[in-house]
Automatic annotation (TrEMBL):
Gene: SLC12A4
The protein's name in its UniProt record: Solute carrier family 12 member 4
Membrane topology value: Multi-pass membrane protein
First-listed, main subcellular location of the protein, grouped into a coarse class: membrane
Cellular localisation: Cell membrane
Cross-referenced Pfam families: AA_permease (PF00324), SLC12 (PF03522)
Reactions that this protein is recorded to catalyse: K(+)(in) + chloride(in) = K(+)(out) + chloride(out)
Similarity comment: Belongs to the SLC12A transporter family. K/Cl co-transporter subfamily.
Any one of the GO CC terms: synapse
BP GO terms, sorted: cell volume homeostasis; chemical synaptic transmission; chloride ion homeostasis; potassium ion homeostasis; potassium ion import across plasma membrane
Length: 1066
């Protein structure tokens, strides 16, 4: 195979995941181009080799498979590569140290360590700070273990966490988590920029501030505005850098990491030095309150200048006068002494015991040293700005939210999986080592800060007490500037990394095409740089910068990262518990319990740090999930959620198998038998509409059809039929399954469907069968014989049967009946199906406004008044609202009309049985029958052989008297003579089968009563009489059914399955 061709194929496989993964390996279409493909030694497998590759060629392709990165490398190559001369892609060469360990370290160590960790230790105390660090590090460690398991389960495409989650949990979770991770990374960029500006404006160049506070109390708004202006400038500059070339960002990454490491080492050096030589950073205290050092130079009330006691700057600030008069002095200032204490007593001073316990404060509360002597009187409010005070209210939960971003960044290794020599080995080792290292640094930092620095200095967020020095900087050696400069560059670097990573992640999601409205962000520059995605990222980051407070932005990104980590743990737990055959991670030190613990910690941390942000983050993820579920492209990624559905379905089916359902749980599980025409189109789609309207029972629906033929030859036809039915199911919004059976005889196929459809406890209990329209005109008897055989099969299988007659007149799902009745003619009790069906239909919007009427038939010896009362009571106990009527059937003589119908029926069946007529003669016979017996209603509208759309003849007159019959006979005498000559069989009324006459009498009388009462009903439900035991009477049975339902527009014949389906008990 040519090199170019091979590369193209690899590109197809491991691009951005938007291909449909039909083959578990690579596209095998190009495999067999070689001339020696059919090896003599493999002659036995010649047929197979057409469609399946040889093992040698498959392995050759797998070896040449390289993991192209989604990062900057191929973009740079694309820029420099010539169109025809393709560069041979370098094989990934990064090891664990450079590829995973250091990038993770750089991403984890960030702005919080330098700007907020000391403040956290001072506020929460050493013990609670240990707890905060422990919880956060446990969370990331457990997530890293889960991530390692997922990352080592097969080849990880470049794209990191998004690819891992989406391929493990499916497109819905993948998209939701991918976007959460994207938003988290974007807000992280904003947080790093805010951190960099805080360092710049507070510690490096305070004079660069554009806005200045107008009064003593109005410092915060000026600070926030400065952050916003400088933040926007920084963000624009960084976005331009990323846009111009990612290679510059990647080149400077190691420089930024060096800054972080040097800064951390200087902290350790300073802590060790403080044991024997603590640095001089004195703090000025007034009583037990901490004073801001920036407003004065001498920490005393008075000073001696040339034998004279003069007021210091401090006196002037509190007394508003340079004279030593006390008239306008602050009361607190007069009664308390000014003292100076060491800001950094050093590790040997024993300050640790004072810093062990928490000291949470409200907003505006002054920093006080608890054990310092003080006279407690209230001072002037105008002098508040001279003290160091808390700028936000603090609590354990607030600190958790602010600290958590300093442990995020564990995905950095998996994000560059494409650059690693052996990703499956490097990712777990590098990530876990990075987390262990950073955790140790955090724990030791908490301990060192608590042991070396005075409590009020620790609680001083911006270093006001130590002359506007960075608090961490005061401890560091050789100079505070080491940390100030180091942290400034490292935060700038981290911001650049976030702005580089986030657009790529968004581009990967957009290219997967699971969220349709994001497709525009999949495009970029010619070299693949995600330009549009970068623009969106910059806009979202700008929102973070407009918030302008590091302490407000940190909890937002905590939420998004916690959501992401929660789903990584969920993915691992689901895959482990399902024991999917494909779940074979190389990393063995994982367990589902650890993943669940990690998941629980993530969830707890979300609500601990900020319950309202947690709800918003979950709402966003939920909305994305639902959007992808309804709108997104169909993806089959072999994900765990599909596996979970399979396991849940299996478990539920096994539970259902334990016994037949209780009457209270009975619901119609439908098997709808559809008929297809020659073009494989559904002949009566309204059967599906009716099934969907019945589905308020929320049961199972199986749509079955039979194709006549041989399975080996008709397989393609069966597939086409299945697709047609599935399309129809979608149009009619039926929630169900489709089953196509190929059989030599239709009757056999239907029997197979009735016997074998369903699985375990999820089997159908009701068959919906179409009426064989035009059976009278049909040239062969198979149409109605199939119908009667199906009725017999359902009876034998103890299944209920529904036969909707005139189904084309049934309403569509878009129609609404605003009035009308559903009439139930309850003649025989067969388990209550007749009661339940109208109730279920009324749940659907089409039938909702219809009223239900129940008619029952009383014989002469029945007490009809008592029957009506009993029926009303029964319905009341069934909780079904319906009007009740009892119809009395008079014992009348059998009418001439009945004899006439029976005679006509028997003549016709004998005639067809005994004579083999040619087609033309049969047409003539049909015309004669039509002339003689004008009372036959030709149902040509629904003829199996004819197209729909023929006109329906007018309805016939139903009530016949003896006189009318006699006059009719006289009128048609000539036709009768011709007819009788033709068939030369003369059965007279007295020779008729009396059983048939009795049945016809019942059918005629019942039909008369039903038409009289229910001619205007929207739907008539009626007990369906069973087929005769003697097969010879099949055709007569069809005639009885026709007579019974004549003159009714919509009839549903119902036959129960022999078990109770409705109960009066709760």
């Amino acid at each position: 195979m040519g090199d170019t061709q091979c590369h193209r194929e690899i590109k197809t496989l491991c691009g951005h995941g938007n291909h449909k993964e039909n083959s578990p390996f690579l596209n095998s279409s190009e495999a067999g181009k070689g001339s020696d493909y059919y090896d003599r030694n493999l002659a036995l497998f010649e047929e197979e080799l057409d469609i399946r590759p040889k093992v040698s060629s498959l392995l050759g392709k797998l070896v040449s498979y390289t993991n192209l990165t989604q990062g900057a490398k191929e973009h740079e190559e694309a820029e420099s590569a010539e169109g025809s001369k393709r560069k041979v892609s370098k094989s990934p060469s990064m090891g664990t140290l450079m590829g995973v360990y250091l990038p993770c370290m750089q991403n984890i160590f960030g702005v919080i360590l330098f700007l907020r960790l000391t403040w956290m230790v001072g506020t929460a105390g050493v013990l609670q700070s240990f707890l905060i660090v422990l919880i956060c590090c446990c969370c990331t460690m457990l997530t890293a273990i889960s991530m390692s398991a997922i990352a080592t389960n097969g080849v990880v495409p470049a794209g990191g966490s998004y690819f891992m989650i989406s391929r493990s949990l499916g497109p819905e979770f993948g998209g939701a988590v991918g976007l959460c991770f994207y938003l988290g990374t974007t807000f992280a960029g904003a947080m790093y920029i805010l951190g960099a500006i805080e360092i710049l404006l507070t510690y490096i160049a305070p004079q660069a501030a554009i806005f200045h506070s107008t009064g003593a109390h109005d410092t915060s708004s000026a600070t926030l505005n400065n952050m916003r202006v400088y933040g926007t400038i920084f963000l624009t500059f960084m976005a331009v850098v990323v846009f111009v070339g990612v290679k510059y960002v990647n080149k400077f990454a190691s420089l930024f990491l060096a800054c972080v490491i040097i800064s951390i080492l200087s902290i350790y050096a300073g802590a060790i030095k403080s044991i024997f030589d603590p640095p001089a950073f004195p703090i000025c205290m007034l009583g037990n309150r901490t004073l801001t050092r920036g407003h004065f130079d001498v920490c005393a009330k008075t000073t001696i200048v040339g034998n004279m006691t003069v007021a210091t700057k401090l006196w002037e600030l509190f007394c508003h006068s340079s004279n030593l008069t006390t008239d306008n002095c602050d009361k607190y200032f007069l009664l308390n002494n000014v003292t100076e204490i060491a800001g950094i007593p050093g590790a040997a001073s024993g300050i640790l015991k004072d810093n062990l316990w928490s000291n949470y404060m409200e907003k505006g509360e002054i920093l006080e040293k608890a054990d310092h002597p003080s006279v407690d009187v209230s001072g002037l409010k105008s002098n508040l700005h001279l003290y160091v005070f808390a700028d936000i209210a603090t609590s354990f939960t607030v600190l958790v939210g602010i600290f958590f971003p300093s442990v995020t960044g564990i995905m950095a290794g998996s994000n560059r999986s494409g650059d690693l020599k052996d990703a499956q080995k490097s990712i777990p080792v590098g990530t876990i080592l990075a987390i262990v290292t950073t955790s140790l640094v955090y724990f030791s930092s908490v301990l060192l800060f608590g042991a070396c620095i005075e409590g009020v200095v620790l609680r001083d967020k911006y270093g006001d007490a130590v002359n506007k020095n960075l608090v961490v900087g005061t401890l560091s050696w050789p100079s505070p500037w080491v940390i100030v400069i180091g942290s400034f560059f490292s935060t700038c670097g981290a911001g650049l990394q976030s702005l580089t990573g986030a657009p790529r992640l968004l581009q990967a999601i957009a290219k997967d095409n699971i969220i349709p409205f994001l497709w525009v962000f999949g495009h970029g520059k010619a070299n693949g740089e995600p330009t549009w995605a970068l623009l969106l990222t910059a806009l979202i980051a700008e929102l973070g910068i407009l918030i302008a407070s590091l302490d407000m932005v940190a909890p937002i990104l905590s939420m998004f990262f916690l959501m992401c980590y929660l789903f990584v743990n969920l993915a691992c737990a689901v895959q482990t518990l399902l024991r999917t055959p494909n779940w074979r991670p190389r990393f063995k030190y994982y367990h589902w319990a650890l993943s669940f613990l990690g998941m629980s910690i993530c969830l707890a941390l979300m609500f601990i740090s900020s319950w309202y942000y947690a709800l918003v983050a979950m709402l966003i993820a939920g909305m994305i999930y639902k959007y992808i579920e309804y709108q997104g492209a169909e993806k089959e990624w072999g994900d765990g959620i599909r596996g979970l559905s399979l396991s849940a379905a299996r478990y539920a089916l096994l539970r259902l198998e334990e016994g037949p359902p209780h009457t209270k749980n009975w619901r119609p599980q439908l098997l709808v038998l559809l008929k297809l025409d020659e073009d494989l189109h559904v002949k009566y789609p309204r059967l599906l509409t009716f099934a969907s309207q019945l589905k308020a029972g929320k049961g199972l629906t199986i749509i079955g059809t039979v194709i006549q033929g041989n399975f080996l030859e008709s397989y393609g036809e069966a597939q086409a039929a299945e697709q047609t039915i599935k399309n129809m199911i979608e149009i009619e919004k039926v929630k169900g399954f489709c089953q196509v059976v190929v059989a030599t005889k239709v009757r056999e196929g239907i029997a197979h469907l009735i016997q074998s459809c369903g699985l375990g406890g999820m089997k159908h209990n009701t068959v919906v069968l179409g009426w064989p329209y035009g059976w009278r005109q049909s040239e062969d008897a198979r149409a109605w014989k199939t119908f009667i055989d199906t009725v017999r099969c359902t009876t034998a299988a103890h299944l209920a049967l529904l036969v909707p007659k005139n189904v084309s007149f049934y309403p569509s799902n878009h129609e609404r009946y605003n009035e009308g009745n559903i009439d139930v003619w309850w003649i025989v009790h067969d388990g209550g199906m007749l009661m339940l069906l109208p109730f279920l239909l009324k749940q659907h919007k089409v039938w909702r406004k219809c009223k239900m009427r129940i008619f029952t038939v009383a014989q002469m010896d029945d007490n009809s008044i008592q029957m009506k009362k009993d029926l009303a009571t029964f319905l009341y106990q069934l909780r079904i609202e319906a009007e009740v009527e009892v119809v009395e059937m008079q014992n009348s003589d059998i009418s001439a009309y009945t004899y006439e119908r029976t005679l006509m029926m028997e003549q016709r069946s004998q005639m067809l049985r005994q004579m083999r007529l040619t087609k033309t003669e049969r047409e003539r016979e049909a015309q004669l029958v039509k002339d003689r017996h004008s009372i036959i209603r030709l149902e040509s509208l629904y003829s199996d052989e004819e197209d729909e759309g023929e006109t329906v003849p007018d309805k016939i007159q139903m009530t016949w008297t003896k006189e009318k019959c006699d006059s009719e006979k006289r009128n048609r005498n000539t036709a009768v003579e011709n007819f009788r000559e033709l068939i030369s069989i003369k059965p007279e009324w007295e020779n008729l089968n009396q059983s048939n006459v009795r049945r016809m009498h019942t059918a005629v009388k019942l039909n008369e009563v039903i038409v009289n009462r229910s001619h205007d009903a929207r739907l008539v439900l009626l007990n369906m009489p069973g087929p005769p035991k003697n097969v010879d009477g099949d055709e007569n049975y069809m005639e009885f059914l026709e007579v019974l339902t004549e003159g009714l527009e919509r009839v549903l014949l119902v036959r129960g399955g022999g078990r109770e389906v409705i109960t009066i008990y709760s």
